[in-house]
Amino acid sequence: MTSTDIKSTQRPEYSKAQTKLIQATLDSLMLEGVDGCSVRKICDTASMAVGLINYHFGTLNDLLAAAYLDLAFSLMDEAILKSQNTALPRQRLSIFIKETFSDSVMQRKILRAWVVFWGMIDRAPQIKDAHDASNQAFRVFLEQSFSELDKAHTVKPTPRLAAIGLTAIIDGLWLEWCLSSETFSADEAVLLCEHWVDAACEKVLSDAVAQT
Fold first, then answer.
1. What is the pLDDT of residues 25-50, one digit of tens each?
2. What is the pTM for the complete model shown?
3. Residue 41: left if φ>0, alpha if ψ -120 to 50, beta else—which one?
4. Cα separation, 52 vs 65, whole angstroms
5. What is 13-210's CATH number, 1.10.357.10, 3.30.2310.20, 1.20.1540.10, 1.10.10.10?
């Protein structure tokens, strides 16, 4: 296992019935936002009996937490997997950044689901735990990449803080694009992140980046 092939980025395993309910939850939230966050609407979407949410997950909040993790990992795992195609940490970061602004991620409907999840963090500890776990997996991958890069180019202020900073920039750009996609393109978002990484590494766009 490579240093960036971390177990924390793997999705939890679910039964077929649980997976069906998780997907129905995401479909319902992406379609209707908070209006889709009800046991009946989720079960109607899944074509399953209402009582099966309690049977398979215990509570609606537990199902929402599972859906949170599934969405977070689905957006993150592919980017991490594709970045493993190179052993060069700077190039790995470039691939990861590009994938986080791909067409599959840049979708406004995803924001509808996130708004529901974010609105419940303060009152649903399961969702808070899902948020913390997925964000940690995201930062761990970036920190490991920055730590490897730090061996050749000093990363400022530190690899950990660089990971936190890049996470914030990616999240902020994605959110702003969802709210106002006319402001900038996905390619411009990638360019902003690339320049930020180079600034953190005290160097201009690297040859590795240019080759991607």
1. 999 999 999 999 999 999 999 999 99
2. 0.85
3. alpha
4. 16
5. 1.10.357.10
